[in-house]
Amino acid sequence: MKNLPRKENGDYAREFKANGNKYIIRTADEGIGILRWSKLQLMSSVMGYGADIAKLEQGFAKLGDLFNGFVKNKNTVFEIAAHINEMRSGMVDESRRNYSYVFWTACLFIVREGEDMTKFIEEEQEAKIDDWNKEGISETDLFDLTKKKLISFITG
């Protein structure tokens, strides 16, 4: 596997080549446009939670029960913290099982040079993922980059 190029400080480089094509990693300041930002919202929830709303709801319900128990001196802060960590680990585990969503999400902000940012054509996105695959780009790097970019795009 080939790692994405990095700057001296360890951050991902702004550009890389894959299968002969130049790719640019867009920043939140540059933006990705309304269409892509809307897709980012949808894809990130699928990526993070495996589209399993029931599992997410169960986790939050248990968290509510733990907080209620804490107020009544039946639960401790440590139990609440442990459950939050369990939920976070579950999100990461589910994301790792759904790499396809990671790749599709990455397509929103990793763009080919000259790509039209007002569109999101599936065939073009599949071609990008195919380039990354042919180049042997590390799926772990794409996963890590996507997590970092989601935070920067959502929080501004």
The run of helices and strands is EEHHHHEHH
Main sheet attributes: strand count, strand direction, barrel closure = 3 strands, antiparallel
Mean pLDDT across residues: 85
Rounded Rg? 18 Å
Between the first and last Cα atoms, what is the distance in angstroms?
31 Å
State the assembly state of the protein chains.
single chain
Number of DSSP helical runs: 6
Strand order of the largest sheet: 1-2-3
Q: Strand share of the residues?
A: 5-15%
Overall helicity: 55-70%
| Count of domains | 2
Low-confidence stretches: none
Total beta strand runs: 3
Shape: elongated
Main structural class:
mainly alpha
What does this structure look like?
This protein has 156 residues and is mainly α. The protein has two domains: 1-49 and 99-156, no CATH class; 51-97. Helix content is 63%, strand content 8%. It contains six helices and three strands, in the order ββααααβαα. The protein has helices at residues 34-49, 53-71, 77-97, 99-109, 122-135, 139-155; strands spanning 15-18, 21-25, 110-112. It has a three-stranded antiparallel sheet. The mean pLDDT is 85.
